[in-house]
Amino acid sequence: MSLSTPLRRLLLLLALLAPWPALAAPALLVLGDSLSAAFGIDTRSGWVSLLAERLAARGLDLRVVNASISGDTTAGGLARLPPLLAEHRPRVVVIELGGNDGLRGLPLPVVRGNLESLIRASRDAGARVLLLGMRIPPNYGPRYTEAFHTLYADLAQRYEVPLVPFFLDGVAAQPGLMQDDGIHPRAEAQPRLLDNVWPALEPLLRP
């Protein structure tokens, strides 16, 4: 059945007046372990959820994708990253991994190589990268613990990516801020974690 001219005009007008489908906001991907997965606390209290709230409050149109898994290592993150990049096409990738590698005493060249691959893959996908540095307890020996900490700075300098030198700065070993295991921050510590990240992250959020 052919449409009359007036009906065709009406349908064209309705199509022009119909709202365009909303484009998905650019993504900010957090690839981390239990420190970013809000282990032991309500996820709504975690620093990543607080980050999403801060972005919204400041009118920054970014959707936060928290791809953090408790217990994850740099190798685990590296295995998970490609499909995450393909699905979300993030503008920014925050890499918060390595702590579990250090606690397991994994060889530092392996940790370094995995972190390098995470940085490269994220940048090759067009994302800006923020690296969150970590320290491990001194009982692993001064040589290992210091080399573990400095590898983050070395990688940040080599690949020219911003770095938070110690993600748990002002939180680790502070009474009332750590859970009973001495490893995971309590809900009260999460705003401090966000404040540790924010100065290095904020410049990456601009279009």
UniProtKB/TrEMBL annotation:
Signal is among the record's keywords: yes
Signal peptide: 1-24
Domain SGNH hydrolase-type esterase residue range list: 30-188
Molecular function terms, GO-annotated: phosphatidylcholine lysophospholipase activity
Record-linked Pfam families: Lipase_GDSL_2
InterPro entries cross-referenced by the UniProt entry: Ester_Hydrolysis_Enzymes (IPR051532), SGNH_hydro (IPR013830), SGNH_hydro_sf (IPR036514)
Keyword terms of this UniProt record: Signal
Gene3D superfamilies: SGNH hydrolase (3.40.50.1110)
PANTHER family: THIOESTERASE 1/PROTEASE 1/LYSOPHOSPHOLIPASE L1 (PTHR30383), THIOESTERASE 1_PROTEASE 1_LYSOPHOSPHOLIPASE L1 (PTHR30383:SF24)
Name used for this protein in its record: Acyl-CoA thioesterase-1
Source organism: Plasticicumulans lactativorans
